[in-house]
């Protein structure tokens, strides 16, 4: 089980709130909520059903490495999620693996949870021996991923004109 702290608030003051970052396999009670958020934000607008997402998520619960879904939670409360997958963007099938579906509950945003989830996903991939990882995002998130140390590889990819980002895994403790 991984523990996290949201660190500093916007004024730089230390915050006491703590949360846990775990593999969904060990926190299956959050699976329905994770599926709901992925469906509403990404899959539903493209015509998929909630059952489609639930089936895909079941795959994350059944395998040992990828795909893997992580959840942030605190005292039984779901806070956010992220998933590592082998492929995420049909137009760039040569790249793998990807960090996808990064989501923080709206009322929990702006406290570093997104960065913590992303960092945990990066660490998980690094532990799997991954050297280079990718993610795709709308251009509105350009400042966000750049600030978190990702390298902008391409812009305007695919029908949704996504940015493609790359990150080289750094050795643990580096
Ligand atoms: C993007 C998201 C995961 C960030 O989560 P978070 O916990 O608020 O992120 P953090 O607290 O680590 O970082 C907050 C910073 O990111 C910035 N940020 C967050 N969302 C942003 C956006 N859509 N565009 C630009 N900047 C954004 C905030 O302004 C804040 O900047 P500041 O620290 O300078 O004030 C969250 O807003 C979210 O779930 N959005 C909806 C789903 C989504 O777009 N996911 C990304 C898919 S690629």
UniProtKB/TrEMBL annotation:
It comes from the Bacteria. Gene3D superfamilies: 3.40.630.30. The keyword Metal-binding does not apply. CDD domains: NAT_SF. Keywords: Acyltransferase, Transferase. It holds the Pfam family Acetyltransf_1. The keyword DNA damage does not apply. Residues 22-171 form the N-acetyltransferase domain. This is N-acetyltransferase. It comes from Devosia nitrariae.
